[in-house]
Design brief:
By secondary structure, the chain is of the alpha/beta class. The chain folds into 2 domains: about 280 residues, 3-Layer(aba) Sandwich (Aminopeptidase); about 120 residues, Aminopeptidase i, Domain 2. The protein has 9 helices and 22 strands. Helix 4 crosses helix 9 and helix 7 crosses helix 9. The chain is globular, with a radius of gyration of 22 Å.
Length: about 425
């Protein structure tokens, strides 16, 4: 494995997350990085004319992106996939609740740890649709200041606060925006931020995000904390490994999907035809496409649960992983994770060949874990697949924590994947 300045790489990751307060900003950041490296954007509505050895990317809905390097002769697809979204609160179309205090009207997106959002500076980011002379335009919005807060109820008014609390999203997690009955002020602020008239706003996809910046901490700076480590840490690592990879007999594909936290069943999620559509346009001949799939591999990259320092009993006694221990290879008998014996062997082969630290994870047998996008994507594009991730604490908290050393391991595993091959033969596989 190549040597890295782990703290420098962590600062780069935190900078990327800081510039990505919404899924739309994250995809914009990834697209800009691809453009800087000479990749060309393709539009799904246009005819494609691909040139040998050139790089391309496709964006769907502004929140999902697939990049690939085209080559005329390829044995199969080597695919790494992550997701751009994280649990948050989405602002409703009629987004204000007026009264003595003006609050924003929100609903939950994904399964967040609700109490972690309380008493922290928040703001709003996303996209806004604007009426223009030639139709409808899309603008990205980030109100880049401390704008909102969800205050806790004082311990004197709720003596059971430390005994566990059930949160009602219709009242307990509504953010405070302004004083008194000033209905209409939020949309006016959005219009002002964008430099348009209020009546020009036709629609929006806006969510809350935590304002607290990411940081490196610990006795020796061995930890990082930030919003959205799940899964922007993997999205960042996949793309960095993709751009670093050279050569290889397979065609490399890097995909970052939206809506994993709510099941992926959208036109831009892993359950959509997005990956299938792109691969079929890369390889329109049906016979060649099916043969390529038989020699393809999907690495589903989504973070994993590290052993908790205060609650190690929640982890499996043997299949447990630690922060700063390297990439996590994930298993689940119910196929919430796609790893099987074949894909396990391939990931272990790549890790051993490149000297990449690798850990194996399974949930404690009486504690159900989460799922990810690998098993969903594989129902649309049927390839051999493994689920991997990076170990972290406080998954789905507003502010999550991980290790400074682990990002480099994921970058290197993705690079090894993109530079490798996975070819079916009688009695086994060539790698």
């Amino acid at each position: 494995m190549r040597k890295y300045d782990h703290k420098a790489l962590s600062r780069e990751l935190l900078s990327f997350i800081g510039r990505s307060p919404s899924v739309f900003h994250a995809v914009k950041e990834l697209a800009e990085k691809l453009s800087e490296k000479g990749y060309t954007e393709l539009r799904e509505s246009d005819a494609w004319s691909l040139e040998d050895q050139k790089g391309y990317y496709v964006i769907r809905n502004g929140s999902s992106i697939i990049a690939f390097r085209w080559k005329k002769d390829f044995a199969g697809f080597q695919i790494a996939a992550a997701h751009s979204d994280c649990p948050t609160f989405k602002i409703k179309d009629k987004g204000e609740l007026n009264g003595e205090y003006l609050r924003l009207n929100t609903e939950k997106y994904g399964g967040m740890i609700c109490y972690s959002w309380l008493d922290r500076p928040l703001s709003v980011a996303g996209r806004v649709m604007i009426a223009e002379e030639k139709g409808i335009g899309t603008r990205l919005l980030n109100i880049d200041r401390d704008l909102l807060l969800i205050p806790s109820v004082a311990i004197h008014m709720n003596r059971a606060a430390n005994d566990g609390m059930k949160f009602n999203p219709a009242c307990d997690t509504l953010p405070l925006f302004s004083q008194r009955d000033e209905k209409g002020r939020f949309l006016a602020l959005v219009a002002k931020e964008l430099g348009v008239k209020e009546e020009a706003i036709l629609g929006h996809d806006l969510c809350l995000y935590l304002r607290q910046p990411g940081c490196i901490w610990g006795a020796d700076g061995q930890y990082i904390s930030s919003r959205a480590l799940d899964d922007l840490q993997c999205a960042f690592s996949c793309m960095k490994g993709f751009l670093a990879a050279k050569g290889g007999k397979s065609l490399p594909v890097c995909a970052v999907f939206d809506n994993e936290e709510v099941g992926s069943s959208t036109r831009q999620g892993a359950a959509s035809t997005f990956l299938y559509d792109v691969l079929r346009r890369i390889c329109p001949d049906n016979e060649r496409y099916l043969r390529a799939l038989a020699s393809s591999f999907l690495l589903s990259c989504d973070n994993a649960h590290a052993v908790h320092p205060n609650h190690p009993e929640y982890s499996d006694p043997e299949n447990k992983v630690y922060v700063n221990g390297g990439v996590v290879l994930k298993f689940n008998a119910a196929q919430r994770y796609t790893t099987d014996g074949i894909s396990e062997a391939y990931v272990k082969y790549l890790a051993k060949k490149k000297g990449i630290p690798l850990q194996t994870y399974a949930n404690r047998s009486d504690i159900g874990g989460g799922s990810t996008l690998g098993n969903i994507a594989a129902t649309k594009v049927s390839v051999c697949s493994a689920d991997v991730g990076l170990p972290q604490f406080a998954m789905h908290s507003a502010y999550e924590s991980a290790g400074t050393n682990d990002t480099a391991a994921m970058v290197e595993l993705c690079r090894a994947l993109f530079e490798g091959r996975f070819s079916m033969r009688e009695g086994g596989y060539d790698v």
